[in-house]
Amino acid sequence: MQLELSLESLKRPGGRSARVRDAVLQATLAELAERGYGGMTVEGVAARSGVHKTTVYRRWRSVEGLIADALEMAREEPWPIPDTGSVREDLRGVVALVRTGFADPSAGPVASAFVAAAMQSADAAVALREFLTARHRQAAVVVRRAVERGELPSGIDAQEVIRVAVAPVYYRLFVTHEPVSAQDMERAADAALAAARTGVLQAAPHDDHDDMSQEPPG
Amino acid sequence: MQLELSLESLKRPGGRSARVRDAVLQATLAELAERGYGGMTVEGVAARSGVHKTTVYRRWRSVEGLIADALEMAREEPWPIPDTGSVREDLRGVVALVRTGFADPSAGPVASAFVAAAMQSADAAVALREFLTARHRQAAVVVRRAVERGELPSGIDAQEVIRVAVAPVYYRLFVTHEPVSAQDMERAADAALAAARTGVLQAAPHDDHDDMSQEPPG
DNA sequence: CTCCAATCGCAACTACTGTAGCTTTAAGCT
DNA sequence: AGCTTAAAGCTACAGTAGTTGCGATTGGAG
Fold first, then answer.
1. Beta strands of chain A (E only): which ranges?
2. DSSP class of B62
3. To probe the interface with B, which of A128, A176, A185 has the most B CB atoms within 10 Å?
4. Facing B177 at nearest CB: one of A129, A182, A201
């Protein structure tokens, strides 16, 4: 019971449980894509997957649980980080990747649901945090390459540059709900770059522990 | 029927409808503060306000409707924009205002609920957008004063500087759910300032109409 | 003072979400 | 193959969110 989590991946890929999980998670993605987060329901997922609703309730507990699990799966797939030879273009490319990820008619609703679910459930929140941490790590290459090329000063906090670059896009998409123009994206990327150049985003000894994370209930 | 919205404020402040609205909205804030967005319910608000639940459903339709209306009320109250004589400190102050607005034990849950509700309902989304637009306008003085002082180049998009400054905080609070340290805030403010200095955030002729707002359902 | 229109209160009802108790199935082991 | 046990299926039900139709109240106009 204690080791189950780490053993999960060792179980037979064709076992009944695995089959059920697969069916349910795929149904989750499908439901999210066509009904959105607000329209998705546990019973809907159960019906579509052919799995009984009590089973879904038992294993995933709620819509947010389903989304958290789906999010864990999604962490696997890689990201086509750009490599143009110029930080400016690379950063703009990363920001554009983010936007299109939410703009795409099929993937967009799913991605948005992840963000919405993370605001309602602590489990979904950690799943999303881990997902995005992985993405930050991946995208940080863009900055490190720039340092090697001499485009940026060394000692920079690469992931923080990424965060500053994408933050305005997320802010517009999920907080102010303003439209995000191509120019907005360019300005966000270029602003992060300018900040990086002036040394504001240097990596610092993390002596500061003034925590203030936003805890969702449940 | 067509003019009702604009006439709303002209109605007697002590009329029955006004009394009901007041009681309900106050109950909404109270419920949000102690139960949070996820725990708030229309019936709870009705019970606390002493107004029948049918009435609440009829006038506000849902929890999100209640929040949207409460948000409209909240737009009134002013914001203690700092004026230290230095853009750097002023910007940092604005960012700190944002953080504490969500950190405060009584106001925090309410403010967070506004953001969460805007993700679920289109009405709440426009209410929040208008609210934040007002705040951006207020905070922009900080930048304009800096331009007058010669600290920043003229022709700058003052509100965009504010957006870039606060975006990383919102990103951490509501997207990645990472802790927000004092250093994180300083870096966000300083990054926006650096970008502003290098002229990346100049106001531009808005020829770009590549819209991509995030539409919530309902 | 009387009447009109709008709004609110009320009770009953529908539909749906999530749970409980029990039975059945199948994966893995010897 | 036969046995054990964890997990899935099923029925029934409890609780709650949201609706409807109608009667009562209120505020304002003539």
1. none
2. S
3. A176
4. A129
**Which CATH class name applies to B87-197?**
mainly alpha
- Per the CATH hierarchy, to which homologous superfamily does domain A14-74 belong? Homeodomain-like (1.10.10.60)
Cα–Cα distance for residue pair A143/A161, rounded to 1 Å: 8
Q: In which residue ranges of chain A is CATH 1.10.10.60 found?
A: 14-74
pLDDT above 80 (res A55): yes
Binary contact (B177, A38; C-beta < 8 A):
no
Give first-to-last CA distance, chain B, whole Å: 22
Q: B44 Cβ partners below 8 Å, 6+ apart?
A: B31, B35
Q: Of A84, A74, A82, A62, which is closest to residue A29 (Cα–Cα)?
A: A74
Which residue type, as a one-letter code, is found at position A152? L
User: How large is the C-alpha radius of gyration of chain B?
Assistant: 20
- Identify which of B163, B190, B193 has the shortest CB distance to residue A168: B163
Contacts of residue A21, defined as CB under 8 A and 6 or more positions apart, other chains included, come to A59, A69
Helices A182-197 & B182-197, crossing angle to 10 degrees?
Answer: 100
Percent of chain A with pLDDT over 70: 88
Tell me the per-residue pLDDT of B179-210, one tens digit each, with 9 for 90 and over: 999 999 999 999 999 999 999 999 987 554 55
Give the pair of three-digit tokens for residue A131: 């997902």
State the CB neighbour count (10 A cutoff) for residue A11: 11
Size of interface A-B (CB pairs under 8 A): 182
Q: Looking at the complex, report in whole angstroms how far the Cα of residue B113 sits from the nearest Cα belonging to chain A.
A: 9
